[in-house]
Amino acid sequence: MKLVILRTDIKTKKKVKKMRPVFNSHPVISKWSIDTEDIDNVLRIEAEDNLDEDEVKKLVTENGFYCEDLPDII
Amino acid sequence: MTSNIQRINEPYYHSTEDIIHKKLELLNLKNGEVLVDLGCGDARNLIEACSFAKINCIGYEILPEAIADAHVNIAKSGLKDRIEIRNEDFFETDISTINVLIIYLTRYALGALSLKLENELPKGARIVTHQFDIPAWKADREIDYLQKNGQREKIYLYTKK
Lengths: 74, 161
Prior knowledge:
By secondary structure, chain A is of the alpha+beta class. Chain A has helices at about 15-25, 55-60, and strands at about 1-10, 30-35, 45, 65-70. Chain A has a four-stranded antiparallel sheet, with helices on one face. Chain A is globular and about 30 Å long.
């Protein structure tokens, strides 16, 4: 099982709805969520181990949104 | 292959005594519990925790200077029989018997850890973090804590469902 967590600019339910068919139809993604109330609007994906994180980023950006890794700085 | 622990190779920061005390207070420690501090640094959280209840503590740390400091501090505190320091990959560790977890990591690192916590921590286990919350998790309690030095810090308490 692989976990991908990304910061996005997907801030509304309407925007989440746009991503729904993309993730729901993905062959190796088993579970996903976008927290529109979170400070980083985190996208959380559980998938099979062979999920390519760059592919996820591409899917998000192709649909008009921004995403990046969460900051790793204290 | 990059080991998981390299993904959470955080720097060695000291939390203030205020924060440590408040985090431990929130955990409501009970005698007989096992507390783990992930990235325990010089073991100050663990030493302080032993004054709250008769618990056993395990600290995970990978930085050599922090491990050395931890051993010195534990020896000084006389708590060698209750505190163990482990220099190993937390991702490979059995966490099914942990009751309480103290963490101070970035959101990135907390996110990387979250699936293991969800899948392996026992029901009812408590987790406390500060400054950064666990992404995509809902905290049971979120406290905006005013420290003695005048700085505010967020503290997050979670219970494994």
